């Protein structure tokens, strides 16, 4: 697959992710993930979720926490894409959580291991970057 096509495919995935985030609905976000799903957090802890309801519950807690801090939307930038053959791709972005006035509440860099499925790209592992 040509790089520009691959980059477009991954950008479209993250664009849809942003739209799902705007709902602050853990289930809508979880639809972009495969079970099992593993997350390596910035503090070094690993969480593994074996089923969709667990993933949805996790993301509901995350967006509820963000909302309680004043977050009203998010955006990504600095997209990097690495092909991992026909079945997978690595997408890395910098996330920014935004307050209602557009100021940045929080920012971090995260990598997503994405698998191609009949429903499009889906996440099966993430890593938060630590400097």
Protein topology:
Blueprint lengths: L2 H19 L4 H5 L2 E8 L5 E4 L2 H17 L2 E13 L4 E12 L4 E14 L2 E9 L3
Parallel strand pairs: 1-6
Antiparallel strand pairs: 1-2, 3-4, 4-5, 5-6
Distance between the termini: 32 Å
Instruction: Calculate Rg over CA atoms.
Output: 14 Å
Binned strand content: over 45%
H-E order = HHEEHEEEE
Protein structure class: alpha+beta
Question: Biggest sheet, in brief?
Answer: 6 strands, mixed
Name the helicity range. 25-40%
Strand order of the largest sheet: 2-1-6-5-4-3
Helical segment count: 3
The beta-strand count equals: 6
Shape: globular
Mean residue pLDDT? 94
Uncertain residue segments: none
Explain this structure to me?
- The protein is of the alpha+beta class and 131 residues long.
- Helix content is 31%, strand content 46%.
- The chain is built from 3 helices and 6 strands, in the order H-H-E-E-H-E-E-E-E.
- The chain has helices at residues 3-21, 26-30, 52-68, and strands at 33-40, 46-49, 71-83, 88-99, 104-117, 120-128.
- It has a 6-stranded mixed sheet with strand order 2-1-6-5-4-3, with helices on one face.
- The longest helix is centred in the N-terminal third of the chain and has 19 residues, at 3-21.
- 19% of the residues are buried.
- The model has no long low-confidence stretch (mean pLDDT 94).
Features of the shown structure:
31% helix; alpha+beta; 131 residues; 3 helices; 6-stranded mixed sheet; globular
């Amino acid at each position: 697959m040509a790089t520009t096509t691959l980059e477009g495919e991954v950008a479209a995935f993250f664009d849809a992710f942003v739209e799902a985030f705007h709902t602050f609905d853990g289930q809508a976000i979880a639809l972009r993930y495969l079970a099992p799903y593993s997350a390596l957090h910035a503090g070094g802890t690993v969480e593994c979720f074996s089923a969709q309801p667990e993933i949805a519950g996790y993301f509901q807690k995350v967006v509820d926490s963000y909302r309680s801090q004043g977050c009203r939307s998010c955006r990504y930038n600095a997209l990097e894409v690495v092909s991992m053959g026909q079945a997978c791709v690595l997408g890395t972005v910098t996330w920014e959580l935004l307050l209602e006035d557009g100021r940045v509440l929080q920012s971090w860099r995260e990598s997503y291991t994405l698998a191609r499925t009949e429903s499009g790209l889906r996440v099966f592992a993430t890593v938060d970057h630590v400097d």
